Amino acid sequence: MRGSNKRMEAATRRTAYVGIGLVLLCMLWPSLTPPAMAQTEGDRGAHTLIEQYQQAIVQERMRRFLEETKDGFPGRPARLLPTAMDTLRPWLAARTPGVTHNEEPDKPAPLVVEDVRHVRHFAYAWFEQTYGNNSWAYLGSVGSRKRARLDTTQTPQLRARLQAHFGDPTVTMAELGRQQASGEPSPQFVYALVVNDSMAVQIRDVNGPEDRGLILMTESRWRDQLLELRAALLRPLLDIDPAPYVDYYYNREFNHWQRTGYDGSAYFIDRIRPPNLRRGRPQL
Questions:
Q1: CB atoms < 10 A from the CB of 243, how many?
Q2: What value, to the nearest 5°, has the Cα angle with vertex 46 and ends 45 and 52?
Q3: How far apart are CA 124 and CA 162, in angstroms?
Q4: What are 112-140's pLDDT values in tens digits?
Q5: Is the pTM of this model over 0.85?
Q6: Which residues pair with 154 in a beta bridge?
Q7: Element (H, E) at 215
Q8: Half-sphere exposure in the Cβ direction for 275 (13 Å, CA)
Q9: Number of Cα atoms under 13 Å in the Cβ half of residue 99
């Protein structure tokens, strides 16, 4: 009796194993089917149900994840990346004890113009020898979106105010006019200045008497202070009454000479024959 029971239990286990194997085979059969074999409508339906079930699981997990994180993710501290300065700072500190090396350089102090020296014509050779080989930074109009009164004022009017404030220019076209023959444009006038006994500055016209504004130049090392220089040197010109003057100017566009200036009552620009520059500057 016991032997027959054992045989029946073994047969039952074999039957269960075969059933499990058939179930697994049915589930895995679509993935084991070669590509060349055509799938039946039932196979495609089973695949569709499996894909829908997988999508439903993914969507449910995403919904739970969004509910759990609806208040946002907790912030994490920034991770500092190593830089070359990380190795230089200890090296500098070891060689300069007591000196703190800041990561960013201090901003320059605001410019205070305490002294302005106008370089006269006889000292222009000294100015050129001292500062002529330096690189220069330029500042014309501040910008088309926010033009200042200095940018829109006609150059002859500003030249008359420079005459009243500083006197005669350092150099004019009368001294520089010979350069036009070699193809190099020359300014109508140049005012050379030395500010605070150290800053070389030049004020010159933009493009002759038919233009507007002025050009301010200084050494490249003072580039960041050009706007402050402009405000200190040029803005006061607008409150000064003009003084009479007369200059030569060579108009390169129309290839002729001009005599331009202010006679005390009106501004003028007259076309003239090529002047004898050896006689110096024109006279009113």
A1: 15
A2: 90
A3: 18
A4: 899 999 999 999 999 999 998 989 998 87
A5: no
A6: 212
A7: strand 214-219
A8: 24
A9: 10
